[in-house]
Write the structure tokens for this entry.
Amino acid sequence: MATNPGPANGLVRLMREELVEISHRAYQRGLVVGVSGNNSVRIPGTDAVLIKATGVNQGDMDTADTVLLDLDGNVLEAGREPSKEIRWHLAIYRQNPGVGGVVHVHPPYATAWAVANRTPPLVHTAARGVLRKIGLVELAPSGSQELADLVAGAFSDRDLRVALMREHGIIAIGPDLRTAYYRAEYLEDTAKVALLAAQVQALGPDRGVSLAGERAAAEGGG
Ligand SMILES: [Zn+2]
């Protein structure tokens, strides 16, 4: 690319709205709490990305809480400070031009597996089809170069779409932000169903549930 004229304003505005809408959905679905998590989106056809500003709740944020940066981390507009996790978001975008959106949330079921340092099995056909596999990124301090290197290392596997972050949360990537968001939902869903299925399989011969009517019938009453 000889010169980069910078992203067109109309396109940036649209992507700000997309980032806000997806972040609202993530919060409303309970995929993240407090001011945690940070989603980002590439301005299509450019080397610029938008990310949530630091210290903002995903459910409360509006377009003024999004920050435009280039892929080297230079903020392209005065005002807000980007999320402290910007370093590994940019590492993903730099190494894979096909990535258009990154979702980072802390959904409870997937995070429980990440705390246990295990990846859940892809228990249903939908998760197998959409996700194919699940990566696991080792623990490193938030915002550190070490964490950025670990995340970039995991996603250097071009087949990887989602990963758990040990004792932290999850990352989902996609050709656009909406696809990345759906993958985050599938990851949380398979983590939840895997745990529930294990509990069902662990039930004893009485199915773990004792119903009054069945007891009465067994005792010959009625
Ligand atoms: Zn996080």
